[in-house]
Amino acid sequence: MSDSIVIIPTYNERENIERIIRKVFSLAEGFHILVVDDGSPDGTGAIVGHLRNEFPDRLFLEERAGKSGLGTAYIHGFRWCIARAYAYIFEMDADFSHNPDDLPRLREACISGADVAIGSRYIKGVNVVNWPMSRVLMSYFASWYVRLITGIAIRDATAGFVCYRREVLETIPLDRIRFVGYAFQIEMKFTAIKYGFRVEEIPIIFTDRTEGVSKMSTRIFREAFFGVIEMKVASWFRKYER
C-alpha cells in the first residue's frame, strides 16, 4: 500500500492520459493514481478502465455523469483518498503541464515539515514554457491580485500542482469550498493558511500542453477575479479552529 496518491481530473484527455499514467508509475516512489473523469465523450474513461487491468492495485477510476468543474472533481477525489487513509494527496493535470518528475520533490517537502507543498511557477521569476505573453501576464498578475486582496504571501496562488498532507484535507470543511475553477485553487490555499497550516512553494517549470484543448474560459477567470473579494469578506465572519 502506497502512502501517496495523485488525483488527475480529466475531461477529454485521451491524447495524454495513458502517457501521464505510465510516467507517474515509472517513478521510484510507487505513487498510486486516482483518475476522476467527468464523462469524457472522447473515451478517456475507457482508456483508464483498460489500463486498470494492467495496474489493478495502483490505478483507480471514479467516473462522474457529466462535466461538473475542476473543484468538485478534486473534492470528490479528496474524499475518496481520505477514506482510504493516504498520507500524501496530490493534485496534478493530465496534460504534462506539470512534470511528474517533480512529484517526489513536493512529497519530500511535506515529509520535511510542510503541510501543503505547491509546485510554483513564480517563486523564482517566471518559469512558464509555451504560453503566449498575454496568458503569462494574466496568471502572474492574478497571483499578485490574490496577495493584495487576501494578504497571503503565496506567489502562485492559482497553481494546480499541489501536495496536501491528509490532515489538511480532513480539517478543511470541504463541503464549504464554493468555487469550481481556478478560484478553487485559491480558496484551498487561503483556507489552509487560515487554519494555520504551513504552506511551502517549490519552484517548478510549467510547460503548456502540446496535446488536447485547454479548459480555460472567461467564466472561470471572472469567478476567480470576483470570488477572491467574496472569499476575503466571508472569512471575516468564519472561525478557523483545528
Automatic annotation (TrEMBL):
A Pfam family that the UniProt record links to this protein: Glycos_transf_2
Superkingdom in the source lineage: Bacteria
Record carries keyword Ribosomal protein: no
Domain Glycosyltransferase 2-like: from-to ranges: 6-171
Keyword Glycosyltransferase: yes
Family membership noted in the UniProt record: Belongs to the glycosyltransferase 2 family.
Stated name of the protein: Dolichol-phosphate mannosyltransferase
